[in-house]
Design goal:
Rossmann fold; globular
Length: about 160
Amino acid sequence: MTYRVCFVCTGNICRSPMAESVFRTRVAEAGLDGTVEVDSAGTGGWHEGDPADPRTVAVLREHGYGTEHTARQFQASWFSRLDLVIALDEGHLKALRRLAPTEQDAAKVRLLRSYDPAVGDDLDVPDPYYGGMDGFEECLEMVEAASEGLLAAVREQVEGHAG
């Protein structure tokens, strides 16, 4: 059985492709790449078909992550095939829960930083799009910090399904 995770931000060119790349690496390192499928999308379709933002690509490459990406818009019909939908901020969380066809689907939507045990009250990953490279570095740090907890939660689900 494949466990499917989709990361969602606004345009699918900065935060969600970064989270997708980092988490895909964590999944592979954990030996779960045949079991866990990772992708990403945006709440809007403005950048559909575009690659990730060049600053996202630069930060990922600098830290040894993959950079292959094509932006797309999240569709409500995807809920039926996804196990977990990871929102990058509160606005995405609300938009995705409104889009969810059922209460069960809405319950699949979680904030990425809720998986970071060291995080405070602010669970948003700020949008780095309108800033400089430091915002992209900060975004990567937040994504990496939450990825370990997310991996542990996904591993628990995968092992629970297998047992």
